[in-house]
Structure formats: C-alpha cells, structure tokens
C-alpha cells in the first residue's frame, strides 16, 4: 500500500473562522480548490468544503454571510501523513467527504482530496504496469 505523503497538498489555504462563507466560496473559485482550512487563534481547526457551502449555507437560505466556522463540519477526522491510500479512502467514505486535513506530530501539514488519492492509485498502477512490462521483456 502506498503512502499519501507524495500527494498531499502542502500549500494550505486557510481563512479565519469568522470569514463569511461568500468570501470562502470566492477564494475556492479563484484558486480552483474544493476546500479551505479554517483557522482560529492561528491554529487550523477544520475544513470548509464546497459541499458545506451548498448544504449548510445556500440550501438553508443564508446569503453567504454565515461565518465559515459555523458552516464547517466538526466531525471530520485527520489522516496521518504516512497514512495509506486505503486508510484515507476509508475515512473519506465513512465520513462522506472528499477532503481531509493531513497531520504529522499533531500539526496540520496539508490537505488531501479524493482527486489526489485517485492520482496516487493511478501512479501506483502505472508503476506496476512498467515493472511487469520490464519483467515480461526480460530486461
């Protein structure tokens, strides 16, 4: 099983928990990302995702003025930097999310998305194909 370490996005975009959801949505669109870390007192406390903005803000009729700290989910686990693709996908599946915070030694070091995990799986499959091809060719 492959570690997620190589595929973690380490450039974490973070906003203060009191930032309006409208601003977070604008930043997600500008940066073409599906989640933003939520900071409180200089520490990352969670993630707000596109899904959160749709399901917890827009679907409830909010204008986008709700602070992201109120819109984010509080039940999302964090995955260790040396976590496996299987562990990561299982956490995403059981918690109905496509984004997780990644931590090392208790500190947030990045974010991993389902897209990142899929790329990891594809890279591993390609490596296996190349190894098998080398074996078959007798090189």
Short description, anyone?
This protein is of the alpha/beta class and 139 residues long.
Descriptive overview:
With 139 residues, the chain is an alpha/beta fold. Helix content is 41%, strand content 23%. It has five helices and six strands. The strands form two sheets. The protein has a three-stranded mixed sheet. A three-stranded mixed sheet has the order 4-5-6. Helix 4 runs antiparallel to helix 5 (114-137). The mean pLDDT is 92.
Characteristic terms for this protein:
139 residues; alpha/beta; three-stranded mixed sheet; 5 helices; 41% helix
Structural class: alpha/beta
Oligomeric assembly: single chain
- Sheet with most strands: strand arrangement: 1-2-3
- The total strand number stands at 6
The residue-averaged pLDDT reads 92
């Amino acid at each position: 099983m492959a570690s997620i370490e190589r595929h973690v996005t380490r450039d974490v975009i973070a906003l203060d928990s009191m930032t309006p959801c409208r601003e977070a949505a604008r930043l997600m669109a500008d940066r073409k990302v599906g989640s933003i870390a939520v900071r409180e007192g200089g520490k990352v406390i969670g993630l707000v995702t596109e899904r959160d903005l749709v399901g917890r803000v827009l679907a409830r009729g909010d204008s986008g003025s709700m602070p992201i700290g109120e819109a984010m989910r509080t039940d999302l686990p964090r995955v260790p930097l040396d976590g496996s693709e299987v562990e990561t996908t299982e956490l995403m599946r059981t918690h109905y999310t496509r984004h997780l915070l990644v931590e090392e030694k208790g500190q947030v070091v990045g974010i991993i998305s389902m897209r990142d995990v899929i790329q990891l799986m594809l890279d591993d499959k390609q490596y296996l194909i190349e190894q098998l091809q080398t074996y078959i060719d007798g090189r």
